[in-house]
């Protein structure tokens, strides 16, 4: 399966409405700490916008709601995976993306038959505190050898300037949060990302 090379991660349907119409084709809704009723509304709104713009929507963490709302993709970390009902996810026809950060997590993730694997953090990230040191570019090459033919998503501290290194070392997709959401002009930066990833589309 070929995965879109630009993977935008946002934390609200308002961001989806702002940025997806610019041409984003793979988007993760990553919302933390929200009560279920509002979360469901956010998922519904994001799903409608993504459907209207032919953008693949991935729901982070909330696999039950993703099933109930008829979504197509879910992304889970290793702790999420440990408690998720994988049979229910599979039965609902949900595609599955999984995080990995080290050898043990890679083995666990490969055994769960995912549809893509993510490796991070490639560079330092300001989004969240991480217990892993930055992986660096050589690790991408190693991971790609181990996960192929599954698509490999690189995440953590990515910018348009860092994309050639990511893709030349074997990543299929680059995921990003703060380089776009904290940029003074998120729309312009999104367009830069779309253009910068064009050679790998
Ligand atoms: C594409 C992608 N890769 C990694 C993550 C991180 O997932 P996880 O480890 O579960 O951490 P949280 O994002 O839930 O804080 C991701 N969300 N997306
Ligand atoms: C959510 C997340 N997961 C990571 C991992 O390594 O699993 S790194 C990360 C943060 C990505 O944000 P930014 O593009 O702002 O660095
Ligand atoms: Mg998670």
From TrEMBL:
Belongs to the thiamine-phosphate synthase family. This is Thiamine-phosphate synthase. Gene3D superfamilies: Aldolase class I. Residues 12-180 form the Thiamine phosphate synthase/TenI domain. The gene is thiE. 4-amino-2-methyl-5-(diphosphooxymethyl)pyrimidine binds at residues 28-32, 60, 99, 128. GO terms for molecular function: thiamine-phosphate diphosphorylase activity. Its cofactor is Mg(2+). It comes from Chelativorans salis. Signal peptide: none annotated. Pfam families: TMP-TENI. It catalyses: 2-(2-carboxy-4-methylthiazol-5-yl)ethyl phosphate + 4-amino-2-methyl-5-(diphosphooxymethyl)pyrimidine + 2 H(+) = thiamine phosphate + CO2 + diphosphate; 4-methyl-5-(2-phosphooxyethyl)-thiazole + 4-amino-2-methyl-5-(diphosphooxymethyl)pyrimidine + H(+) = thiamine phosphate + diphosphate; 2-[(2R,5Z)-2-carboxy-4-methylthiazol-5(2H)-ylidene]ethyl phosphate + 4-amino-2-methyl-5-(diphosphooxymethyl)pyrimidine + 2 H(+) = thiamine phosphate + CO2 + diphosphate. It is an enzyme of class 2 (transferase). SUPFAM superfamilies: Thiamin phosphate synthase (SSF51391).
């Amino acid at each position: 399966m070929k995965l879109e090379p630009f993977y935008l991660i946002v934390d609200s349907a308002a961001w989806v409405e702002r940025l997806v119409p610019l041409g984003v084709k793979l988007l993760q809704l990553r919302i933390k700490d929200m009560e279920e009723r509002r979360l469901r509304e956010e998922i519904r709104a994001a799903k409608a916008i993504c459907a209207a713009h032919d953008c693949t929507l991935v729901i982070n963490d909330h696999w039950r709601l993703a099933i109930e709302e008829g979504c197509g993709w879910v992304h889970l970390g290793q702790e999420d995976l440990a408690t998720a009902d994988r049979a229910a996810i599979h039965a609902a026809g949900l595609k599955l993306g999984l995080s990995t950060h080290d050898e043990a997590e890679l083995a666990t993730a490969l055994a769960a038959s995912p549809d893509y694997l993510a490796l991070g953090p490639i560079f330092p990230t300001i989004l969240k505190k991480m217990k892993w040191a930055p992986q660096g570019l050589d690790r991408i090459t190693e991971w790609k050898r181990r996960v192929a033919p599954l698509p490999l998503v690189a995440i953590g501290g990515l910018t348009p300037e860092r994309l050639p290194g990511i893709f030349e070392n074997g990543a299929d997709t680059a995921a990003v949060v703060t380089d776009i959401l904290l940029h003074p002009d998120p729309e312009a930066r999104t367009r830069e990302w779309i253009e910068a990833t064009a050679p790998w589309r």
